[in-house]
Amino acid sequence: MPDYNDSVFINCPFDDGYKTLFRAIIFTVYRCGFYPLSALSEDDGTDNRLAKIERLIESCKYGIHDISKTESNTEGLPRFNMPFELGVFFGAKRFGMGEQKNKVGIIFDIERYRYLKFISDINGVDIRPHDGKYNATIIHIRNWLKTASRRVTILGPNIIVDEYEDFLKNLPAIVAKLGFDIDHVTFNDYCSIVEEAIKQIIADKHK
Which residues span the domain enclosing 139? Predict the structure, then answer.
């Protein structure tokens, strides 16, 4: 498990429609020098899901929360997992001890004030709109991590966007070479691919 101060909990939808943003989030977190963790990081059929979420949140100083998934399912009901996990993160920061009180988060929705229609209790919190676009998501996360961590090693947002777009072009060939279907790459496998890609990007810059 990476160090608490380097770990970022990702609380977002896992469906196919969100995959483009999810992959951009993971790439950006790594490129800024941090480590992404999510409910998909572990796969233990004997583990209680809520206990796993609590453990992951406890292990991360930073949290990325996207509450934009509000559409009803086939039974006419919305998904409440993301707002719930955001609440756990807030609770850890408010009632936790020691380093837990230093937690820092960023909250996304499609539009800046749309959340007031379904979760008005967080009125006054600075919600970042991504409009479903990966470049806006990358820029928001990069700027947030730069401000929150004050690390001088974090690259400018336009560089990260350009690098991610180059990575996306090469991704189908990379996953095919590794024997994966691009639509069925697991979270941990994708993280390994991103880690290796970033190592190569850095190596190329120093040639």
Answer: 4-154
